[in-house]
Hints:
Blueprint: E1 18-21, E2 26-30, H1 32-35, H2 37-48, E3 53-57, E4 66-72, E5 75-81, E6 87-91, E7 106-108, E8 111-113, E9 120-122, E10 127-129, H3 142-145, E11 153-157, E12 160-164, H4 172-176, H5 179-187, E13 194-196, E14 201-205, H6 209-216, H7 222-225, H8 227-235, E15 246-249, E16 255-259, H9 276-293, H10 295-302, E17 305-310, E18 314-318, E19 322-331, E20 334-344, H11 349-362, H12 370-383, E21 397-399, H13 404-408, H14 419-433
Antiparallel strand pairs: 1-2, 2-21, 3-12, 4-5, 4-7, 5-6, 8-9, 9-10, 11-12, 13-20, 14-20, 15-16, 16-17, 17-18, 18-19, 19-20
This protein binds FE2/S2 (inorganic) cluster and fe (ii) ion.
Amino acid sequence: MTQLTHTDPGGTPNRSLVHEDWDALTFKVHRSAYRSPALFQKEMSRIWGHTWLYLGHETEIPNPGDFKSRTLGGRPLIFCRDSSGKIQVFFNACTHRGTVLCRHSEGNTKFFQCFYHAWAFSNSGELAALPGDEAYADVPGFKERHRLRSVPRVDSHEGFVFIAFDPDVPDLQTHLGEAAHYMSLTAKIGPQGMQTVPGVQLYSVKGNWKLAVENAMDGYHFAPTHNTFVGYLRETGFAVTDDDQYAYDLGDGHGLLILTGHNGRIGMVWEPRFGEGEKERTAAKRQEMEERLGKELAAEVADASRILFVFPNLLLFDLEALTIRQIEPVEAGRTDVRAWQFVETGEPDEVRALRIKTMVSFVGPGGLATPDDIEAYEAVQRGIEATADSADPAYDWSDMSRGMANEKQGNQGRSIDEGAMRSFWRQWSRRVEGDGTPGA
Ligand code: FES
Ligand SMILES: [Fe+2]
C-alpha cells in the first residue's frame, strides 16, 4: 500500500478548488466544493457516471425472485435475483414511457408490473405481457426491443456487488486495486461466510456527501467529538489510545485507517463490555481462524480494527462489529446513507445479538457515535455558508494540512492526521477538475 508521504505518486494538482503545497505544508479545499449545485451535477456525471459504484451485497437477495429497489447517482435501479438464481440489475424505468416500474423497496416477485399501462416484465427482464398487444402484433421484435434495460456493467468481489453506468470502465478488480484485499479480510471472518442482516438503516443528512467520506477518514475528531463514547469505554475498563494508528492511501481515492487503539472486536479481540462468556469463545474462534487461514492471515484479519473507504460510495467499518455503509448524494447539501449490519453466517444467536447491540450502540443511527458525526457534518454544511462570497476570498477555504510535516519526513501518516482526506481530495480533483478520468 502507498505511504502517505509528500512523494505520493498520485500527483499534486494545484487546481482551482484543491490547493496543495508541500513547501508551505498547506492543503486546502475551497468550500464551494460542498455547496455548488453546478459542481454537484459535474460530480454526478464525472464520478458517478464513470466509475464502479457499490450497489449491495448478494446476501441481501438470497432467493430467486428477491429484489431491492435502490437509487445510485440519482438513477432508480432494481437489484434482483431472477428465477434462475442470476443477479440482475435493471434501470427501474418502464420501457414503455419511463414510469418507475417497481414502487416497493423490497420483496419477492416473478414479475414487475407497471402501474401506468400494466406492462409486465419478468425478473430476468423480458417484456412478458402487455394489455391489448394485438395493437402491436404487426411490429416484429417489439417485445425484444422493449425488454428491461440492464445497467451496462455488474460485477462483484466477495459478494459485494458493484455496477457502472459507463460500459468502458476498467474491470472491477482494477478499480478496487488494493482495497480488494481489505474487503477480502472482512469476508474471511466467518468460517461459513458473511451476510447482511435483513433490514437497512436509512437516514438522510443535510450535508454534502464528501463530508461523510471525510468524517469516516478522520481519526482527529474521534476523541473530542465522541467523548461520551470514549468515557464509556474507559469506564468499562478498556484503554482507548490514538497511538500506532495509521492511515493508508490505497490508490484511486480509496483509503484505509488501521486502528489498534480502538480494538475490541467481537470474536477476535475480547474486551470486558462483551461479557465473560465471549472470552472463551473468542479464544476458540481465534484457533479456528488460525487453522483455516494460517497464523499470519488470521492475525491480519483479527488483530486490528479497520475503516475502509472504496471510492466513491462504500464504507466498510470492521470495528467492534461490522457495518457496510453506502453513500448516495441527493443534492449538494443533502445525502442519503444506507447501513447494513454485516455478520458471520451461522453464528450462535447470542453472538448475533451481541454483535448487533454493539454495533448499533456505536455506529448505528441512534448510537453513541453516528448522531455526533451527523451533527458535525451538518454543522459544517451550515457553517460554510458564512464565508460564501466573502469580502476576503481567503476566508472560504477549509484546511486539511494536519500531518503534512510528519509525512514530509517520510513517516507513515497517522489516522489522527488528515492524510486520508488529502488522498480522497486528490482523486476527486482528478475526476472532477481533470478530464474526468482517474490519473488525468
Ligand atoms: S409507462 Fe409503463 S406501461 Fe406505460
Ligand atoms: Fe465519528
